[in-house]
Amino acid sequence: MARIPINLSTGSIDVDSSQGETVIVGIDLGTTNSLVAFIKDGEPYILTENGKHGLVPSIIHFGKDGDIVIGEEAKEKLSSAPERTIYSAKRLMGKSIDDLKNYTENLGYRIVGNVEDEGKLLQVKVGDTYYNPIQLSSKLLAELKRKAEALLGKTVDKAVVTVPAYFNDAQRQATRDAGKLAGLDILRIINEPTAASLAYGAGLDIEESENVVVYDLGGGTFDVSILYIDKGIFEVLSTHGDTFLGGDDIDDLIVSHWKEMYDLGKVDSYLLKPLAEEAKKTLSSADTAQVKFHDTVLEITQEQFDQLIQPIINKTLDSCQKALTDSKLAKSAIDKVIFVGGSSRIPTIKKKVGQFFGKTVYDQINPDEVVALGAAIQADILAGNRKDLLLLDITPLSLGIETVGGLMDTIISRNSKVPTQVGRNYTTSVDGQTKLRVTVYQGERDMVINNRKLGEVILTDIPPMAAGIPKIEIQFLLDANGVLTVKATEERSDTKTSIKIQSQYGITDEEMGKMLLESIQNAESDLKERSIQEAVTEGRMVYNSNIKFVKQNESWLSDEQKEKLRELNNLLDAAIESKDKDAINEKLEDLNHYSRPLAEIALDKVVEENLSGKSLNDE
Ligand code: AMP
Fold first, then answer.
1. pLDDT above 60 for 537
2. In Å, how far are 55, 58, 431 from 139, measured between CA atoms?
3. Average model confidence (pLDDT) for the chain?
4. Cα 504 to Cα 95: distance, rounded to the nearest angstrom
5. What mean pLDDT do residues 396-409 have?
6. What does pTM read for this prediction?
7. For ligand 1, which residues put their CB under 6 angstroms from it?
C-alpha cells in the first residue's frame, strides 16, 4: 500500500472531497510512536512530512522555560533531561501507583500517587507540576491533530483511535478523555489487531472466508487476536495478550546483559537503553551489533540475543495458544498470520511464530503503519464511504457484578461481540431492603477482589418487601467502543437507576470540564503566575544573601553602609511580600546597584586574607 509524501512547503493536498472541510482521521496512539492516517480516493495513506516516515515518537519534553516539545525533538532530550522527558505514557493509562510498582524504578522521570486522592489516578511529576496520564496522552493527540491540520489543510476534530485489544474499560475511557482534552471527538476506539486486519483485509485478496491471526508485538504491549473474515465482515473470535510486554522489555534485557558482561560501574539503565535499542535493530539484519558507551564497545551477537529473548517469545506463544483455545479453532484452521508492531521485525520472532502456526507470516504492510491504516479505513466506514466492510469487535475482558460472599457474577463474558446488551435478574437478601448497591467489576477471576472495580450503581427507593420478592433486573449495555452503561430496575415498582460506568482511575465529566476550561483560561495566567514566582524566588535569594553579607563583613563596613544595605533590603522584602513583579525587580536593581562595589571590596579582602594565610572570619 503506497503512501504519499505531503510536503509542507507545497501547502495542503486534496483529501477525499466527500468528507467536506473536515476529515476523520485514523490515529495509532502508540506506546513508542504514534501515527495518523487518512483516506484519499478510497485508499488509506499515512500522513508524512517532507517525504519522511510519518512516525511521531510518543515523547513529551517539558522545558524549564515552560515550553513543551513533542516527538523527535523531545526524543533528543531523553538522555540530557530524563526527568523532564516523558515516554511510554500509554503504559500509565488507567493505572494506579500500585499497579505499576515494579515498573516505575527504571523510568528516568518521576511517578507519584495522586496528591489529592491517594491511590487514585497516578501522576507524573515534572519540576513542580503534576500531570496525569490523560493529560499526557492529550498532549500527544493535540500535537497529532495540529500536524494533521497543517498537512491536510482541513479541520481535524474527529478520529478513530486504536488501543491494544487488552485495554480494559478504565484504559479505554482514559484514551477517550485524552481525545476530548485535545479537542478531538473520538468516534470509535478500535482494537489495534482488528485495525491491522482491516488494513490487510481491505488491501489483500481474502478468499471467501478465512481465519486470520494478528500477532502484534510493539514497544510496550503484546496482543494476539484471531479473526474470522467472511465477505467483508470482520469478526473477532478471540483475543489475548499482555499490556506489559514488548520491545521495551527486550531493550531492558540487553541492558542487563551488558551490565553483567562489562564493568560499567554504577550507570543508570536509561542511559544504556537507547544503545540497546540501536543494537537490537541492527540485529534484525546483521549477525552482531556493536555500540559505544563512553570508551567501552558493547557487543551482542545474534545467538546471545536469540537466547535472551526466548522467554519473551515463549510468553507470546502462550498467549497465542490461549487465543486459539478461546476461538475453538485448531491450528490447522488458521489461514494467515499477520505481523504487526515494530518488534515483529525481529527475524527469530518471525521464525518461531511461523513455526508455531505452521504458516508463513504476512508482513507486506509496514508493521509500523498497518494499525493506523486500518484505523483510517474504520474512519471511512463510519463516514459512510465503505459499505463493503463491517467490523464486529469484541470485549477482551468479562464484566460482572459482586454477589453475596464477594463472588463475581459475570454478565457479559469476554470475547462477546460489541455492541451488546445483556440483562439478568436478582433479588434482595434482607426483609424490607429499600436500597441495593450494585458493584461492577471487570476481569476473569472468581472473587471480585482479584478483578478490577469499575464503579457502582445504587438503586434506591425500593418499596419495602420481604426478602426475595423484589425483581431487580441489572442490564449491561456495552457500546461499540467497549464502554459500559449499567441499568438497574426494580420491576414490581418500576424503580430505575442507570449510570455510565465512570472508571475508578479516570476522571469525572466534571473534572474533565474543569481541566478543559483551565487549560484554555489559564494559559496566560499560568505564564504570569510563573514569572511572579520566579521574581519572588530570586528576590528572596538576594534578600537572604544580603543579610549574610552584612553579618560576614561587619568589621569593615561603615555604619552608614550597613544602614543603607538594611534599608534597601527591607524595601526588597516589602516588594516580595506584595508579589509585584515589577516592584521586586526595581528593588533588586536598587540593591544590586548599591551593593556591587561593596561586594567587590569584600572579594578583594578574601583574596588578600587567603594570600596571608588567614580567613576573613578569623579577624
Ligand atoms: P511500536 O510500538 O509498534 O511502534 O513498536 C516499537 C518497538 O519496535 C520499539 O521497541 C522498537 O525498538 C521496535 N523496533 C522497531 N524496529 C525494529 C527492528 N528493526 N528490530 C527490532 N525491533 C524494532
1. yes
2. 16, 10, 53
3. 83
4. 9
5. 82
6. 0.67
7. 30-33, 218-219, 246-248, 277, 280-281, 284, 341-343, 345-346, 368
